[in-house]
Amino acid sequence: MDTRIAGPLLELNKAVPSFEESGLPPVPFSMKLMPGDCMVVEARSTSRATMFADLCCGLVPLDDGAVRFMGLDWADLHDRELNALRGRIGRMTRRASWPEFLNTHLAITLQQLHHTSRPLDEIVAEAARLGELFGLPGLPVLRPSMLSDVDLLRAGCVRAFLGRPRLLLLEDPLEGSPVDLQNPFLSAITDARDRGAGVIWLVRNNAIWQGYRQGITSIWRLADDGLVEIRTA
């Protein structure tokens, strides 16, 4: 698949999400995320934030409109194309996402193993480098339930940035995080943007992302009346 795009990296074009499938307001959602952008979306409901991220990934049925990633309409794609595109998305989600039947190192690498054709050794080596960046001594091999909340947060950062994603969907990633994680996290966002990635940072309040405020390109609010832009840089 040719991954070069001309125009928005992610575009919601009057996309009306199915309320029954998502709980999102059934109103037109419109926005454009360009390569290198970092957009903050304020959402007080964590479940609504997660469903909005699902909408961006083409996982929410639409009653009208379109969602396009890298110039391609999710609704037009078949399984192989869907897998390839989702392999270019990194996520940190509030939804329970650590399967207990897998040790943590396998859960970290699962997305890349499923959605890409990269060799296992290459994926593991990159994950180990990211683990050190985010403060882990290596890839954790214990089951997720045996790790502390802080180490799971670090592992979530590794999983999100693994594979040099083109789109990062990050749900309140710094809330409750230790100070020593915040600078590596912000540096990883900047490096990803320098490579042309776009970032959607979903937050519940104004305090979490203030340290990166100068890097934010736009601020939006997700509420009962849909997605509303409240500031553009």
UniProtKB/TrEMBL annotation:
One of its GO terms (molecular function) is ATP binding. This is ABC transporter ATP-binding protein. InterPro entries: P-loop_NTPase. SUPFAM superfamilies: P-loop containing nucleoside triphosphate hydrolases. Keywords: ATP-binding, Nucleotide-binding.
